[in-house]
Amino acid sequence: MPHHVGVRFAALQEAVRTRLWPLPVIGVTLAVIAGVLLPLLDGAVDEKLPDSVRNLVFGGGAGAARTVLDAVASSLITVTSLTFSLTVVTLQLASSQFSPRLLRTFTQDRFVHVTLAVFLSTFTYALTVLRTVRSPSDDDGGAVVSAVVPRISVTVAFLLAVVSVVCLVLFLAHLAREIRVETVLERVQVEACRTADLLYPTDGTVTAERGTPVTVPGGAAQLVAAGSGFLCLVDEGPLLELAQDADVVVVVDRAPGGSVVRGTPIGWCWSSGGRPLDAEVHRRVQEGLDEAVDIGPEPTQAQDLAFGLRQLVDVADKALSPGINDPTTAVRAIGHTSAFLCAVADRPLGDQVARDEDGTLRLVVRRPGMPELLDLAVAQPVRYGTDPAVLLRVAQMLEEVAWSTSRAEVRTAVRTQLGRLRAAVAQADLHELDLERLRKASGQVESTLAHPRSPTA
């Protein structure tokens, strides 16, 4: 059972990454602070600046300072509006062209966050400094006041405007790259592999008992969902401690990413000693489950191993739809799917199980194994992909997965999906040349399955 430090913090970090507002809000706050403090610094050091520095900072009067600050503020709010408009257009394109599930990938783009933060911070800073500029004709209660021109502050505003212009150019270049399907697929694959590294590190600290499924006894008590939505996270540490203290076995029967409905079963618990479960213990376990499980309006990648894989499959399905008909994109999506599956093929996927030191079962959290992941990766592309290139790429993916693992369970799953592929090919109306290529590719998968690689290969 993986015991990740700060599971709740990781979930919070995932939530913040997918929001556009946190970094810009921080930038605006810092801009207000700088806009208040820098003019105070100006008042203390402006008259003491050496000539070499005075020649570098702003040298105009109050009217010129107001013009500069007003120009910076008005232009930056316009640029910010343009940036938001382009971002919205990109989100619409990603939703319609690729998949609605990819919107989360675009909204967590750190480059967009930083760009918006720079623009809004520059706008806010210019406005804040503008309030400190005074002309000699300004009066306060009839008394003529001397001119106040915060030279360093105006110079900083000018530099921020230059930085904003550079950011705008870089943002346009970045946006042009981000809307390319190759970039989208690569980012999804990288995020999916990162999630796999967190859930199933390669240091041997994770155990799975896929071959020995836990049987729920007849007298087990049901644990129900506290809300409706998607199971986003299971904080396993508190659940394990509760199961040990109450001497019970807890099974969370829904994997993260699955849909749940309020009041319906999502788990089971029973006494580890075989005696009837006390009602008070059942209530404690139910309350502990409610606190340890996060249910949200949409799936997240925090603990959902299939989240990225589902996105890749969605892109392939969308490309194979009659309205788009882009088999090349589908082939590339299947290629990234294969890269992810090969990366996790030899890992101990499956239900996460925690036991006491004496081997007593305490906690089971359902997780997808390679058979489920392979089914997700193959079923829909084979169902919708009548193009020979797509079917051929699926066959190559099965061969690559078979080569990447020595686990008997995974190889059995590959053989099952190969049978599904052959059935789809038999029903498709294909040219004899295409059928010959597919038969050859299927034979290569069989050959790879018949000669498993060495564990040291």
From TrEMBL:
Q: Where are the transmembrane segments?
A: 20-41, 71-91, 111-132, 152-173
The cross-references to InterPro entries, in alphabetical order and at most eight, read: DUF2254_membrane
- Per the record's keyword annotation, is Ubl conjugation included, yes or no? no
Q: Which UniProt keywords apply?
A: Membrane, Transmembrane, Transmembrane helix
Q: Does the keyword Disulfide bond apply?
A: no
Pfam families documented for this protein: DUF2254 (PF10011)
What is the official name of this protein in its record? DUF2254 domain-containing protein
Annotated source species: Kineococcus mangrovi
Q: What is the lineage of its organism?
A: Bacteria, Bacillati, Actinomycetota, Actinomycetes, Kineosporiales
